[in-house]
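Task card 7
Instruction: Convert sequence to structure tokens.
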Amino acid sequence: MTEVTDEFGALLTRLLRKIMLILQGRKALVAVLRPDGSQLIPARAAFGLDAEQLAAIDTERLRAFSQFALTARTPTTLNSSGECSSALGDTMGGAISNGLCVPLLAQPGDTQPIAGLLFLFNKATGDAFSAEDRSLSIVLSRQLAAVLFEQQRRAPMV
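Output:
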């Protein structure tokens, strides 16, 4: 499994903390997409999750929930109908009431590669993530994407 280096991991963590504060998520996770698109790998940059919970995440289920965001290349709200909560809640330390999945694109456009995905869960207000949250997440996620692309440029994934 490929890991984000400590230098880039620290930067991802700082950016993720700022994004969580702005968008009011209680749990957050960055998952790196291998350049060939074959695997989604949780990075160590996460909040509201301990190392054991992070290791227990089923990346195939995570990828299934993120498929629309990957295909449409746009932020997607994860519903609270129970399917997301039942699939991820146990591994993420409690119920998931709502979520936002954001593809990490350095620039908008259909030809740009996706570096990974940002997942935010359980908005602090209890409300679902709004259209404004989705729009803001696009701008904020570009910073995360830039860090991941620089990491890949310096140390390509194997």
